[in-house]
Amino acid sequence: MSRLLLLGPAREAAGVRRAEFPGDTVADVIERAVERFGPTFAEIVALSHLWVNGDDAARDHVVGPSDEIAVVPPVSGG
Asked: Which of 36, 50, 64, 75 is least enclosed by beta carbons within 10 angstroms?
């Protein structure tokens, strides 16, 4: 199972900072997280960046049991 690290609004929507989910790709893991955490979490993830082990990753990125997927909210500033 891959570890999911939730930051900012994603953490608030899920009610946890970390969770583990099975899946072969980032998309698989996120899909299972959405099933567990619901539609508000899904909306936040749709706007967030996804990183695997500290690097920006596409949803089709292959993951394994030692990988950490971080859901990073978009950064705004000015």
From this structure: 75
| Stated pTM of the model | 0.92
For the cut 80, the answer to whether the pLDDT of residue 10 exceeds it is yes
The H-or-E segment that residue 13 falls in is helix 9-14
Q: Which string of DSSP letters, residue by residue, matches 20-74? A: EE--SBHHHHHHHHHHHH-HHHHHHHHHSEEEETTEE--TT-B--TT-EEEEEPP
Please check whether residue 41 is in contact with residue 33, taking contact to mean a CB–CB distance below 8 angstroms: yes
- Count of other CB atoms within 10 angstroms of residue 11: 17
- Residue-averaged pLDDT of the chain: 94
